[in-house]
Amino acid sequence: MKIETGAPGLTVPVSDRDHTQGPADAPLTLVEYGDYECPHCGRLHPIINQLRQQFGDQLRFVYRNFPLATMHRHAQHAAEAAESAGVQGKFWPMHDLLFEHQNAETDEDLVHYATQAGLDMDQFMSDMKQHVHAARVREDFLTGVRSGVNATPTLFLNARRLDGHHDLETLTAQLQSALAAGT
Amino acid sequence: MSFPLPAGTPAPDFTLSSAPDQTVSLRDLRGQNVILAFYPADWSPVCGDQMALYNEIVPDFEGLNAQLLGISVDSVWCHAAFAHDRNLTFPLLADFEPKGAVARTYGAYRDTDGITERALFVIDREGIIRWSYLSPIDVNPGADGILSALEQLEKRSAK
The whole model's pTM is what? Predict the structure, then answer.
């Protein structure tokens, strides 16, 4: 009996279900599996923004949830809050607020950011209380596991896992070479 | 270079401490699948990530009728502190005395460093190793390989 296990690559392609920034037909698609309370993801956040500026319409950025909830005790609720904002069309403002305030992500803080993002608060509070988006967050997490996500952040460039350092210089070079290779 | 026991090999039995007053014996887990995750050390950054990741997937492992066991040469007290710090919900076994004896029987011990390899074994209900994987020591192998192996085992046993 032989058991085959595959090499790491994105198992669930980017679709309408995802939160994306940038054109759908961009030659580069960068998918991040992240955790709002993970300090490495926090450091990556401004770098992603710089890459989006540099590469403009050539880059589409996608964010999926990968909360390591037993280690980061606010990460799960933060992810649910971002998803709740997403239903109201405000995923990215909430996403930015969370990464800009990683040291303050209690449930109370989340309410504060939701207000700042201009959400319908009755809807937000009800979503959070009933954990309406917990299943979606878990779904993201499991697609990450199946794609070989082993830590946060894990990045996939055009569906292939990007290993190595996630600093601006390295990522710029990786994106440029993917662009040149047309893959 | 270590050579972990390959698929098809009966898993060597062992009894190891999981807490100061508790032991786990592999043979007592017959009838369910077992995941052995050998890792180099409590507290080292990569292991932390790996065990934190597995901790999140425990419900899915259980859904596939599998018990996860972490194993390193750290002592029970070290394991207890580590598990408490990371809120780990699965047992960590101490391959502590004689040091690395169980890891050696699985081909998962690094003589040069005196620590266990980062090696994974999936053992079926009858106690046979069905999948094994040796990861580079500084690379977190993730969980996709374990899940795929377990799914294939469960599919077969359902037939």
Answer: 0.90
